[in-house]
Give the backbone structure.
Amino acid sequence: MDKFFPTDQNDRDALFQRLEAIEAVIARHEALFAKEGHSINDSPETTDGAIHFSGQFENASGSISYSWSRPPHHLLEEAWDSSFTRLAALAHPQRGLILKQLLNDPCSVSTLCQLGVTSSTGTAYHHLNELESAGWVRKGRGGVYEVPTERIIPLLTIISASENH
């Protein structure tokens, strides 16, 4: 579980702020459902709809639960450039293999090579640098790379949304 808890005080504060915001959204939605005969679709807050994703994930490092929600107008009004940059970093088969490995078990560059995930340390560093600059991976203690906790469910959501529906 230590791998998922930030050691830097600023990172912890940011994590707790995000958690409080998520809990506030959940409490608001629970209150709406608690009203007898009231539907979430009748709420003034959601008359224009909402885009939600959430999930639970468990690997060798522990278990996480994550939820995110945005009104459509927010998504349509915001610039998509930073989102496309993060998506572009995922658009390489080698990076997909690296991310799969790191989701199952965070590891070092040498381990990625030993497992045959990458053919060389140079290749591994190239792809890890791209993924790291886009926020999909981070380097931890002892040179071990991992997918940050807050990026796991969004990553898997992107993959599942990309399936043939």
Remarks:
- Strands lie at 51-59, 62-70, 138-139, 145-146.
